[in-house]
Amino acid sequence: MSNHKALVACRAGVGSSLMLKIKVNEVVKENNFPLEVEHSSLDGVPGFPGDMIITLPDVAEELREKNLPQKIVGIANIVDKNEIKTKLEEAFAELEK
After folding, report:
1. Which Pfam families does the record match to this protein (predicted)?
2. Of residues 10, 37, 54, 72, which has the active-site annotation?
3. Across the strands, what pairs with 54?
4. Full 3-state SS string of the chain
5. 61-90, pLDDT tens digit by residue?
């Protein structure tokens, strides 16, 4: 599996997305996922060169409508490591196709 870059983003780029980035990093370390994680507000999405955007479900829906090149991952419970792990595994499987 090659190395991937993900952007954790929310509308303002504070609070919820920062906590989500911390949890995603914990999951990445615990499972040795090949993922480098950055953090930004939604302003950072258009120029992001990576292949995955991790955000909250409502924002994920909006981003999917924009047909961005990245895989959009919506996490409902930002402190649920099992959900994060499952969603990341699904995203990796799609990216490796």
Report:
1. PTS_IIB (PF02302)
2. 10
3. 8, 73
4. CCCEEEEEEECCCCCHHHHHHHHHHHHHHHHCCCEEEEEEEHHHCCCCCCCEEEECHHHHHHHHHCCCCCEEEECCCCCCHHHHHHHHHHHHHHHCC
5. 999 999 999 999 999 999 999 999 999 999
Selected residue with higher pLDDT from 70 and 17 = 70
Q: Which residue is listed with tokens 């930004």?
A: 40
Neighbours of 4 (CB within 10 A): 21
Contact 55, 8 (CB under 8 A): yes
13: left (phi over 0), alpha (psi -120 to 50) or beta: left
Find residue 36's DSSP bridge partners: 5
Q: Kindly report the pTM of this predicted structure.
A: 0.92
Active site residue 10: yes
